[in-house]
Amino acid sequence: MAKVPKASELAAGTQHKPPKTGWMDTPVDFKPGTWCYAGKPKNLEVVGLPNPREWSPADADWKLPSNWQDTLHEGLKERLRKYRSLQLFMDICVRCGACSDKCHFFIGSGDPKNMPVLRAELLRSVYRKDFTMAGKVLGKMAGARELTEDVLKEWFYYFFQCTECRRCSVFCPYGIDTAEITIIARELLNLIGCNIDWIMGPVANCYMNGNHLGIQPHAFVDEIEEVTGVRIEPTFNRKGAEILFITPSGDVFADPGTYTLMGYLMLFHEIGLDYTWSTYASEGGNFGLFTSHEMMKRLNAKMYAEAKRLGVKWILGGECGHMWRVINQYMDTMNGPADFLEEPVSPITGTKFENAKGTKMVHLVEFTADLIKNGKLKLDKSRNDHLRVTYHDSCNPSRAMGFFEEPRYVLNNVCNHFFDMPPNTIKEQTFCCGSGSGLNTDEYMEMRMRGGLPRANAVRHVHEQHGVNMLSCICAIDRAVLPPLMDYWVPGVGVTGIHELVGNALVMEGEKERTTDLRNEPLEGMEDSDNEDL
Amino acid sequence: MGIKLSLLAVLALVLVAFVGVKAAGMSYLFGVTVPYLAFVLFLGGFTYRVLKWARSPVPFRIPTTSGQQKSLPWVKQNKLDNPSTKLATVGRMALEVLLLRSLFKNTKMEYLQGPKITYQWEKWLWLAGLAFHYSFFVIIIRHLRFFTEPVPGFVHLTESLDGFLQVGLPGLYLTDLVFLAAVTYLFIRRVIIPQVRYISLPADYFPLFLLLGLGITGVLMRYFWKVDIIKVKELAMSLATLRPAVPEGIGVLFFIHLFLVCTLIAYFPFSKLMHLGGIFLSPTRNLPNDSRMRRHINPWNYPVKVHTYEEYEDDFREKMIEAGLPVEKE
Question: What is the ipTM of this complex?
Answer without folding.
Answer: 0.95
